[in-house]
Design brief:
Helix content: 25-40%
Oligomer: single chain
Radius of gyration: 30 Å
CATH topology of one domain: Nucleotidyltransferase, domain 5
Number of strands: 55
CATH class of one domain: Alpha Beta
Structural class: alpha+beta
C-alpha cells in the first residue's frame, strides 16, 4: 500500500519586475564603457602588459615580487615583449634587505628577452614604481590590455588597500596608488589615480573596470568625473570561454601547446629558483595570450576578448552577429505571459529508480539533447520571427490529447505542435513537482501530483504525463506561441571561420550539430583540427540553445534593505518586497526556456515508456541519459520490490537483452532531425563506456540517489571503476591530489567509490590514509561579507598582513551531533580560516565563526573525534563523509514498501504521490551550489529567494524592543546585530519590522547587555 503524504508546499518559479528598476550591475560591468569613451577602440589594443606575482605561502599571501612584460603587437597577430622587468614589494628593502641581493644579482646576470632596438636590460622596480611607471602607462598612456592568469588574484597582490565598493553589488574597490597629502603631509589614497572595481561574476570570471576620478574643471571650477576604459583580460576566464574548461596555468599551456611552468614548488621566499619560476610563468602567460588570441580571432564576432566571460558570451555574440534581436527587445510579451511560462520552468530530470542494488546496465544518452529538441520543435523559426503572439489553443490541445497515442511521439511533425502551455488541474498526473521532499530543501521530482489550484505546464510535460499515466491531464486553458514573419537584418556567419550558417534559411541549432558530425569524420583535417573544431561546435550548441533564455542575475539590495517588486507566476500577480532583485539577462525569454527543458524531459519519458513496454526498467536517469537494466542475453536480476521472482522466491527485475536495447535505440531513429549524411543513426546513443576495444562488455551500475552513482566492471574478486560521480563529494577540498583521466574524475573520488562498492559487494576494503583527515571545504574570498569577518580582526594591521580578496579560506564540516562547542548555536556556527594546504595543520590552527559579530574576537579550534575539549569543535572526517555518503536517501521517491525512502531503503523505488498545499509559494532562481565542484563561497549561504504576497503580515511591532533600543548606542547595536543604523532608528521610533530583524536586534541587545566589556575592537586572528 502506498504511503500517501499529507499536503506539502509547492514552489513555483516567478517572473519579477522591480517597481523602481535597478540596472543590472553585471551588465554595467560587462559593458565597461562610458559615453565619453571612443567606441571604435580596437578589439585587441596595440599594447599589452603581462605580469605575474609571487607571494608568501602563509595565509596572508602577501606580495614578495613579480615579473612583467610590456608588449607591443607586431601587426601579424603576435604580442612581442618590448620591455621586461622585475618588481618587488615596497616593504622588502625594510624587512628583508638580504633578499634584495638576489634580485639585483638576477638583474645584473640576465638580459631582457626583447627584440633588437628595445631595452636589452631587465628593469628592477619597487611595487610603487611598477604601478606608476608601467601599470598606469599601459592603461592610460598606451590604452593597453592588462593581462594575467587569474588576474583578480594578481591585482589584489599589487594593490595597497581594498574595501567594499560603495555602489551596491559592485564587489571590491582596490587602491593602487598612494601619495602625500599637500595639506596634511600624510600618506593618503591618491585621489588622482583610478581605483579598480573588481566584482566576482562566478568562480571562473570577474568584472573588472576603473572607477571614475573626480577632478576640478579649469573652465567652470566644478568637480567632474573622468573615466578611462581599463582593459583587463584574465586568461583563465578567456580559456573558459573558448574551451569550456576551468584550467590552471599549467593545464592551459598544455591545452594550447605552450611551454608551461617549471617543475618547482613555490616556497614563499625570494630565491634564484623562485625568480626563474616566476619569469617562466610570465613567459608562458605571454605565449598563452598569443595562442588564445589566434583562436579567438577565428570567431568573426563583435566581442572584445576582455568581455568573453563564458562560452555563453561567445554564443550570444554569434547570435548578434547573425542579426538576431534578443527576444524581449522585439517580442511584446505581457508580464502575465512571462509569469505563466516561468511557472512552467523546471530543470533537467535526474533520479535514482533502483537503490542500493548493483545491476547490469547499458548506459544510453540522447544526442545533444537541447539542440535536438530545439530543432524538433522548430524554435529557431520562433527566435528569428518578426513577432511572436499567443493564441488560445484550449480546444486544440484537448483534441490533441484525446487522440494521443504513444506512437505519435516518434513522429517529428508531432513535435512541432508542442509549442504550447496549458493550465492543468492535476489529479494524480505524473508531472514535475518542486517541493520539500525531505522537509528541508526543495527538489524537483517527476511524481503524481494532485492540486486544488491549477498550475501552468509546458506542452511537452503535458504529453509526458499522458504517456506515463495513460490518460491526459485535465486542461482548463491553453495558449500557443505563434511566430509571424521573419525579422529583418539577419545575415550569414562563419562559425570559427569554417562553418557557414545562413539564419534566414537554415536552422542554427541543426546546422551546428550536423557540422560537428561532419568535421569529426573529415579526413582532410588533422586530428588536432578535427578535435578543436568539433569541440567548439559542441560547446556552442549547448551554450547557445538553452541557458541564456533563462538567465537571471540575483543581486542583494543592500544590508538590511528590501526593494519593492512585482511578482508574476501563473495566474497570480502581486507586489511585495525582497532583499534580492533578479535583473534578467539580455536573452532572457521564459516562453522559450520552459519549452526546451520540458522537451528534454519528454525524451526521457518516451525512453522510459519504451523500456517499460519491453518489460524492463532503468537504474537511473540524469538530464539526457538513462542507464537501462540490461545484460547480454537478458534475464532476472535480484532487486527488492521487483515485479518478478527468482527461483528462490526473491524479488527481481527483468534485465532486457543488449539486442532489445539496440531495438529501442532504433525506435528513436525516426526522431533524428539531422541530415542522415552527417548524423545517420539514432539520437539515442549507446555510450562508449559500454564498449572495450570495439566489443560490448557488461557494465554494472550502483545508485544511491539522484546524480550519486557509479558505473563499474566486476570479476569474482575485484571491481574496476569506470564512471564515478562526485555529486555530494566534489564540494570538499581534495584530501589527495591527482586526476584519473581513465575515469574522468579525481583520484580520491575513484578511491572513495572503490571503498564503498567493495563493502557493498563483500570484497576486501583497503585502508585509505586520508579517511582520518578533517573533511574540509576550500573557498575563494569573493564577497566583502565573508572577508569582513576575518579582516575586521586585523583592522589595525597594514594591508600586507591582512586577509585579501581572492585569498583562499577553508571551512571544516562540523559534526552536527554533539560536535559544536559548549554555548554555541549549531544553526549559526560555520567556521572559516585562511587556507592551508597542509592537512597536518588543520587540527591545530584557529578558526572564527562566520556568524559571530565581527568585533567579538572569539576563535575556535578543532578537536579530534573522541578526544576534543568542550570548547573545541569536532569536525567530520573524510572517512565519516564517505561512510555516510551511501546512506543519503532518494527523498523524492518511495521505497518498495510504499514508505518514504530512508537511508537504508533498497530496491525498486516508486514515485511519491504529492498533494499540493495551497496557497503555492513563489520563488526566484535556485542557487544551491553545495554539491557542485568548485570554490564558490556562496555554498556557505545557499538560499532560495521566496516572494510572499503577504509580506506585510510578517511585520511586527514589539514595544519592549522599542524601550530597550532607546537605551543603547545606535552604531554599537547596528554592528552587533548586523543591521543598518536606519533599522535601529526605526525600532526606536516603534515602526513595524520583519520578525527576523526583531530577533536579530534582541540577540544583539543581549550581547551588549550581558557582555559589555568583552567586546574587543582590536581582536586579531593569531598568526599560525
Amino acid at each position: 500500500m502506498n504511503h500517501r503524504r499529507t499536503e506539502v508546499p509547492i514552489f513555483l518559479r516567478a517572473h519579477t519586475i522591480g517597481v523602481k528598476p535597478i540596472k543590472s550591475k553585471s551588465k554595467d560591468f560587462s559593458s565597461n564603457r562610458n559615453p565619453d569613451i571612443d567606441p571604435s577602440e580596437p578589439k585587441w589594443p596595440e599594447y599589452a602588459l603581462v605580469f605575474d606575482t609571487e607571494t608568501t605561502t602563509d595565509e596572508w599571501q602577501a606580495l614578495n615580487f613579480g615579473f612583467y612584460r610590456f608588449c607591443r603587437h607586431d601587426g601579424n597577430g603576435t604580442y612581442l615583449c618590448i620591455e621586461e622587468g622585475l618588481f618587488y614589494a615596497d616593504e622588502l628593502p625594510l624587512n628583508k634587505p638580504e633578499t634584495m641581493s638576489f634580485l639585483k644579482h638576477y638583474i645584473a646576470s640576465h638580459g631582457a628577452e626583447t627584440p633588437e632596438g628595445y631595452p636589452s636590460k631587465l628593469k628592477l622596480r619597487s611595487r610603487s614604481e611598477f604601478i606608476e611607471r608601467v601599470f598606469w602607462r599601459a592603461i592610460e598612456g598606451a590604452r593597453g590590455l592588462v593581462v594575467s592568469f587569474n588576474l583578480p588574484f594578481d591585482l589584489t597582490r599589487v594593490a595597497v588597500d581594498c574595501s567594499p565598493a560603495r555602489r551596491l553589488n559592485e564587489g571590491w574597490s582596490l587602491v593602487m596608488s598612494r601619495d602625500n597629502d599637500p595639506e596634511t603631509r600624510r600618506l593618503r589614497d591618491n585621489p588622482f589615480r583610478h581605483r579598480i572595481r573588481l566584482k566576482p561574476k562566478d568562480s571562473k570570471a570577474a568584472f573588472i573596470k576603473l572607477a571614475g576620478v573626480s577632478i576640478r574643471s579649469k573652465k567652470t571650477g566644478k568637480r567632474i568625473k573622468t573615466y578611462v576604459r581599463g582593459r583587463f583580460l584574465d586568461l583563465r576566464t578567456l580559456g573558459w570561454a573558448l574551451r569550456n574548461q576551468s584550467y590552471n596555468l599549467e593545464a592551459a599551456c598544455g591545452a594550447f601547446g605552450v611551454p608551461g611552468k617549471l617543475p618547482h614548488k613555490p616556497t614563499g621566499q625570494i630565491t634564484p629558483e623562485e625568480i626563474h619560476y616566476c619569469r617562466q610563468d610570465v613567459r608562458a602567460t605571454l605565449g598563452l595570450l598569443n595562442k588564445m588570441r589566434a583562436e579567438f580571432e577565428l570567431h568573426l564576432i563583435n566581442l572584445d576578448p576582455d568581455r568573453a566571460y563564458s562560452p555563453a558570451s561567445i554564443a550570444k555574440a554569434y547570435l548578434k552577429q547573425m542579426g538576431v534581436i534578443p527576444p524581449l527587445q522585439k517580442f511584446n510579451f505581457a508580464p502575465e505571459v512571462l509569469g505563466a511560462t516561468m511557472q512552467a520552468y523546471y530543470g533537467g530530470r535526474a533520479e535514482c529508480r533502483i537503490r542500493h542494488t548493483p545491476v547490469p546496465i547499458v548506459h544510453t544518452d540522447v544526442l545533444s539533447e537541447y539542440p535536438t529538441v530545439n530543432t524538433l520543435m522548430g524554435l529557431w523559426v520562433l527566435l528569428t520571427a518578426e513577432q511572436l503572439s499567443t493564441v488560445d489553443a484550449t480546444e486544440e490541445v484537448r483534441t490533441l490529447l484525446a487522440n494521443f497515442t504513444a506512437d505519435i511521439t516518434f513522429d517529428q511533425d508531432f513535435w512541432k505542435k508542442l509549442t504550447f502551455y496549458a493550465l492543468v488541474q492535476p489529479s494524480g498526473d505524473i508531472l514535475p513537482v518542486r517541493t520539500t521532499y525531505n522537509g528541508e530543501t526543495t527538489n524537483i521530482g517527476i511524481n503524481p501530483l494532485t492540486s486544488e489550484e491549477p498550475i501552468w505546464y509546458a506542452g511537452a510535460d503535458v504529453i509526458a504525463a499522458t504517456l506515463l499515466t495513460g490518460r491526459p491531464p485535465k486542461i482548463l486553458r491553453a495558449f500557443r506561441l505563434v511566430g509571424h514573419g521573419q525579422q529583418a537584418g539577419l545575415r550569414p556567419v562563419a562559425l570559427r571561420s569554417m562553418v557557414a550558417v545562413d539564419p534566414r534559411t537554415e536552422d542554427f541549432f541543426k546546422k551546428v550539430i550536423e557540422a560537428r558530425a561532419r568535421i569529426k569524420s573529415d579526413s582532410a583535417l588533422s586530428k588536432e583540427e578535427r578535435d578543436a573544431h568539433s569541440y567548439f561546435l559542441k560547446i556552442l550548441a549547448n551554450s547557445g540553445s538553452y541557458g541564456l533564455f533563462v538567465e537571471v542575475n540575483p543581486e542583494k539590495t543592500g544590508k538590511g534593505t528590501r526593494k519593492k517588486v512585482q511578482v508574476f507566476s501563473g495566474n497570480r500577480a502581486f507586489s511585495t518586497t525582497s532583499p534580492v532583485l533578479e535583473p534578467f539577462g539580455e536573452w532572457y525569454c521564459p516562453p522559450l526556456a520552459a519549452l526546451i527543458t520540458a522537451a528534454g524531459r519528454l525524451l526521457l519519458a518516451l525512453l522510459e515508456h519504451s523500456i517499460t513496454k519491453a518489460g524492463g526498467t532503468y537504474l537511473l536517469c540524469d538530464t539526457d541519459s538513462m542507464a537501462i537494466v540490461a545484460s547480454e542475453n537478458g534475464g532476472l536480476v535480484a532487486c527488492t520490490g521487483g515485479p518478478c521472482h527468482l527461483h528462490d522466491g526473491r524479488d527481481a527485475v527483468k534485465a532486457v537483452s543488449w539486442y532489445a536495447v539496440e531495438e529501442i535505440a532504433k525506435e528513436f531513429e525516426s526522431l533524428n532531425p539531422y541530415d542522415p549524411s552527417a548524423v545517420p543513426r539514432s539520437i539515442l546513443k549507446i555510450e562508449d563506456v559500454n564498449f572495450h576495444d570495439g566489443a560490448q562488455r557488461e557494465i554494472w551500475g550502483y545508485a544511491i540517489a539522484a546524480k550519486r552513482y557509479a558505473l563499474f566492471t566486476r570479476t569474482a574478486d575485484s571491481i574496476q571503476i569506470e564512471n564515478p560521480k562526485a555529486h555530494g563529494l566534489g564540494y570538499l577540498y581534495p584530501p589527495k591530489q591527482g586526476y584519473d583521466l581513465m575515469v574522468d574524475a579525481p583520484v580520491w573520488i575513484r578511491e572513495a567509490w572503490e571503498w564503498l562498492l567493495s563493502e557493498v559487494l563483500g570484497l576486501p576494503q583497503r585502508e585509505i590514509y586520508w579517511f582520518e583527515l578533517p573533511a574540509m571545504m576550500r573557498f575563494t574570498i569573493t564577497t566583502p561579507e565573508v572577508m569582513r569577518v576575518l579582516q575586521s580582526r586585523q583592522a589595525h594591521l597594514p594591508y600586507r598582513d591582512r586577509v585579501k580578496p581572492y585569498n583562499f579560506i577553508q571551512s571544516p564540516i562540523i559534526n552536527h551531533i554533539g560536535g559544536h562547542p559548549i554555548g554555541t548555536d549549531p544553526s549559526h556556527f560555520t567556521l572559516i580560516a585562511p587556507f592551508s594546504s597542509d592537512p597536518e595543520r588543520w587540527y591545530k590552527r584557529p578558526y572564527v565563526n562566520v556568524h559571530d559579530n565581527e568585533h567579538d574576537g572569539k576563535v575556535y579550534r578543532l578537536g579530534q573525534p573522541g578526544r576534543r575539549l568542550p570548547s573545541q569543535a569536532e569536525p567530520k572526517t573524510f572517512g565519516d563523509i564517505v561512510a555516510q555518503y551511501r546512506w543519503h536517501p532518494e527523498a523524492k521517491s518511495l521505497g518498495p514498501d510504499g514508505k518514504p525512502c530512508g537511508p537504508r531503503t533498497d530496491g525498486l523505488l516508486r514515485r511519491t504521490p504529492v498533494t499540493a498545499e495551497t496557497p503555492f509559494r513563489y520563488i526566484g532562481k535556485e542557487t544551491d551550489r553545495r554539491w557542485e565542484q568548485g570554490e564558490e563561497i556562496s555554498m556557505l549561504d545557499s538560499k532560495i529567494v521566496e516572494y510572499s504576497p503577504n509580506e506585510t503580515a510578517k511585520l511586527v511591532f514589539d514595544p519592549e524592543l522599542q524601550r530597550a533600543v532607546g537605551g543603547v548606542s545606535i552604531r554599537k547595536l547596528a554592528r552587533t546585530a548586523d543591521v543598518t543604523e536606519n533599522t535601529v532608528k526605526a525600532a526606536r521610533r516603534g515602526e513595524r519590522l520583519q520578525r527576523s530583524t526583531v530577533e536579530k536586534l534582541k540577540k544583539g541587545l543581549k550581547s551588549i547587555v550581558v557582555q559589555p566589556s568583552t567586546i574587543s575592537t582590536r581582536a586579531v586572528l593569531p598568526r599560525y
